[in-house]
Amino acid sequence: MYDGLKRIRTVSALRRQVGAWRAAGERVALVPTMGALHVGHIALVRAARRRADRVVASVFVNPAQFGPNEDFSRYPRTLPADMVKLAAARTDAVFTPDVAEMYPDGFCTTVSLGGPAEGLESAFRPTHFAGVATVVAKLFTQCRPDLAFFGEKDYQQLQVVSRMARDLDLGVKVVGVPTVREPDGLALSSRNIYLSPEERQLAPLIYRALTAAAERIAAGGDAGAAADEARNLLESQGFSVDYVAARHALTLAPVASVADGPIRLLTAARLGRTRLIDNVPVPAG
Fold first, then answer.
1. Do 129 and 33 reside in the same domain of the chain?
2. In the predicted structure, residue 278 carries a pLDDT above the cut 60
3. Active-site choice (38, 41, 128, 248)
4. Are 136 and 66 in contact (CB under 8 A)?
5. What is the pLDDT at residue 165?
6. Sign of the CA dihedral with 262 first, then 165, 51, and 82 last
7. pTM value surpassing 0.85
8. Span 108-128, average pLDDT
9. Is 38 a catalytic residue?
10. Residues contacting residue 115 through CB under 8 Å, at least 6 positions apart
11. What's the rounded Cα separation, in Å, for the pair 54 and 52?
């Protein structure tokens, strides 16, 4: 067991620690999380470990990215177990600010977004990406990492954060890490614990439906029609589908066929009380 994990609670202490590493010529990576860590999060830490001398993980359940009827109060909080997992993955420090540290009295600034933040999730969670971008921008300026690692499961988030880091010259290279899946294809998520046993058996249909649609598009099929077929399949099995959409993999602009550039298929669907998101790339022709 790696016993070098430091817990840091304040921005000033984080800056002192990162500053000491930088003074020693070390490269620093950040892995932002909301905790309830699973194998997918640890894959981000391991990817960061391969590319940096020091790895900081943040654990902060960010109230700004939850809507008024979402699951902020019941979102799983498992910090002691998270610390054990981070130590085993040889994380150097875990930043665990409280809400007052991140959003002190009088806080009134948010990041305004366009481009890849428009549509898809924002149609159903209109304040979500402003909350994500604001907390990530704060983490980037607080930690000042060289690299930051995000999972491709939250693909729109990955593109939003990447665009923000470039547009605001934050000096951080955002790195996407492929989605980690269960053997049956279900994308790992902290919210999977909400699924009943019956729902858990049905949930991998999301990945199968997306994969089949991606194959049809790669074979020359109409992207919109393939997405509609995937949606119809999910709805026929009891999912409440927010969207299934084919988008340009970098800009997230709508596309019609493989001729429009690299394509990503994205979906969000509810199964019982659990909202699941997933995405797959369309294979190149």
1. yes
2. yes
3. 41
4. no
5. 98
6. negative
7. yes
8. 96
9. no
10. 160, 163, 251, 252
11. 6
* Joined tokens for residue 145: 């990492």
pLDDT score recorded for residue 284: 85
Is 48 domain-assigned?
yes
How is residue 51 written in tokens? 């590319």
Q: CA-based angle 37:102:85, to the nearest 5?
A: 20
Last residue of a domain, one of 118, 144, 177: 177
What pLDDT is recorded for position 48? 98
What strands lie across the sheet with 274-281, from one edge to the other? Answer: 240-248, 263-271, 274-281
d(CA 32, CA 125): 20
182 within domain boundaries = no
Instruction: Tell me which of 56-65, 68-77, 196-205 is least confident.
Output: 68-77
CA dist., res. 163 & res. 32, Å (int): 17
Cα→Cα distances 114→95, 155, 159, 267, Å: 29, 16, 11, 20
Please name the residue ranges forming H helices in the chain. Answer: 11-23, 39-51, 79-88, 99-102, 121-124, 128-143, 155-167, 197-202, 205-218, 223-236
Provide the number of structural domains found in the chain.
2
